[in-house]
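Weekly sync, protein design subgroup
Attendees: M.S., D.O., the rotation student, P.L. (late)

Item 1: inverse folding check
M.S. brought a backbone from last month's batch and wanted to see whether the design step gives back something sensible before we order anything. D.O. pointed out we never logged the input encoding, so this time it goes straight into the notes. Structure tokens as presented (496 positions):
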């Protein structure tokens, strides 16, 4: 019975943590809906007065971006802003033939009158954080706009964002990500779905009540003074953006989030690219929990509610660990439930997962209907997309659990960039992209075994007990089977 009680304990704790996280999401939904009714009365620079227009430096941290560099540079120089108050830094850590091509393009832009520099380092120390930090040394701008290589800001992006820095307490202005290839495949649709939830429900829900939010690594602007006051960029975690965001807000800097300003970008179209991105984000989240949680809890400037939301925010990626635990232990729990009648009261804990799922379903619906509308047709589309997203998210749970555990125990790893594709150039033929990983990892094999494990879980529903089976967990095991099956086969065959 000791083993049974251990399984029940871990299963129950994981379910309870997921439930608490869902309640926090529900609170963010209430905050989000409340924020929609408020008028924005922020201070703004008057750009009609040329004297009020500040100097801006745009930083473009890049590493081996052969396929998107031309597109990036051509797009950035289209931004509408006084040319005498704009500097562009291409922070290029590349080690391939893209360096020469980028250098030639930059020289052409310099001849056209643009203040653009090609900044190269002798090594990649600190990875992206190190590049940003080095560029900051010579940056002329009072404000620093940052764009990753796959982002394509609209021409009026600076005009829409810079004015908010008239408030001297604003340290960051962050915009919402858009997705130029949202409907390319099932993989891109579920990535867009997850990111839309973050950039609406979570970012607005937190910022509207003064809770900590994060600069998302790109498509935002920093006040240079804020970066330096918070301790500058540090490369000791894989999510340097989250790290600096928390250090800045602990220093009482305010972050302004602009949901109405959309910055289009390209989503990873193959699962190996999505896996590398997910690994970095989830491991970095766990690393930042270890680095920042104590500081948040001990801060005298934060309310209890802001501390709770801050800790849950830092633990966001750790929810994958809880989902994985619940999934793995759900099959032993099915057998324990039907073998030991006297333990029946413990199994009411299972209802927490159902309640949590309903809460997530409601929260994400409000996000979805704002983007697509609330017609009956869209609602049925939403149902299909939600359960597809939920299943595939669970399919990523092993991969992301490994990332989370590595982050919590302090295992260091290299910053692995997400390969970009530029589908307009490839015309859908992405297979020749030189940055795609061809090797299948051991984790993929384990994901295939887990797919089979949950087939056994579905089979078990028919044979347990003496009342003709127990089908309470059958839908859950079906979703886990589909999720791990999707991740396994897509990883095995490297198809979008």
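Designed sequence read out in the meeting:
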């Amino acid at each position: 019975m000791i083993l049974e009680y251990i399984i029940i304990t871990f299963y129950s704790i994981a379910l309870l943590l997921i439930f608490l996280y869902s309640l926090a999401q529900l609170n963010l939904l209430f905050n989000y809906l409340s924020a929609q009714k408020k008028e924005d009365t922020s201070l703004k620079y008057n750009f009609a007065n040329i004297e009020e227009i500040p100097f801006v430096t745009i930083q473009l941290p890049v590493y081996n971006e052969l396929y998107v560099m031309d597109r990036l540079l051509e797009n950035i120089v289209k931004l509408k802003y006084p040319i005498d108050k704009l500097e562009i830094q291409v922070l290029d850590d590349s080690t391939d033939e893209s360096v020469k091509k980028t250098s030639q393009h930059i020289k052409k832009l310099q001849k056209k009158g643009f203040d653009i520099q090609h900044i190269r380092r002798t090594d990649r120390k600190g990875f992206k954080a190190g590049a940003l930090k080095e560029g900051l040394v010579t940056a002329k701008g009072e404000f620093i706009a940052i764009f990753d290589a796959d982002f394509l800001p609209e021409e009026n992006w600076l005009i829409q964002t810079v004015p908010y820095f008239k408030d001297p307490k604003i340290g960051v202005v962050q915009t919402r990500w858009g997705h130029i290839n949202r409907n390319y495949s099932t993989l891109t649709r579920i990535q867009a779905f997850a990111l839309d939830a973050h950039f609406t429900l979570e970012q607005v829900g937190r910022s509207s009540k003064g809770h900590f939010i994060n600069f998302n690594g790109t498509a935002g602007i920093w006040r240079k003074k804020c970066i330096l006051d918070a301790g500058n960029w540090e490369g000791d975690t894989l999510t340097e953006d989250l790290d600096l965001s928390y250090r800045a807000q602990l220093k009482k800097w305010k972050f302004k989030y602009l949901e109405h300003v959309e910055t289009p970008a390209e989503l990873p179209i193959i699962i190996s690219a999505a896996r590398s991105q997910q690994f970095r984000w989830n491991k970095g989240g766990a690393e930042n929990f270890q680095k920042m949680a104590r500081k948040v809890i001990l801060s005298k400037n934060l309310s209890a509610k802001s501390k709770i939301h801050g800790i849950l925010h830092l633990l966001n990626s750790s929810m994958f660990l809880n989902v994985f635990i619940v999934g793995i232990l759900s099959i032993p729990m099915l057998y324990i439930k039907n073998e030991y009648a006297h333990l029946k009261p413990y199994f009411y804990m299972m209802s927490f997962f159902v309640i949590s799922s309903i809460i997530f379903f409601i929260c994400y619906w409000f996000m979805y209907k704002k983007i697509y509308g609330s017609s009956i047709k869209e609602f049925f589309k939403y149902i299909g997309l939600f359960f597809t997203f939920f299943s595939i998210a669970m399919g990523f749970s092993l991969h992301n659990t490994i990332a989370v555990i590595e982050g919590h125990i302090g295992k260091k790893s290299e910053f692995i960039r997400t390969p970009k594709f530029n589908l307009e150039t490839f015309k859908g033929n992405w297979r020749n992209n030189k940055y795609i990983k061809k090797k299948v990892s051991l984790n993929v094999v384990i994901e295939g075994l887990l797919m089979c494990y949950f087939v056994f879980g579905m089979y078990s529903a028919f044979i347990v007990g003496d009342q003709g089976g127990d089908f309470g967990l059958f839908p859950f095991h079906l979703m886990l089977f589909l999720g791990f099956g999707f991740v396994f086969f897509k990883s095995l065959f490297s198809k979008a």
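Discussion: The first strand starts at residue 56 and ends at 62. The mean pLDDT is 93.
Action: P.L. to compare against the previous round before Friday.
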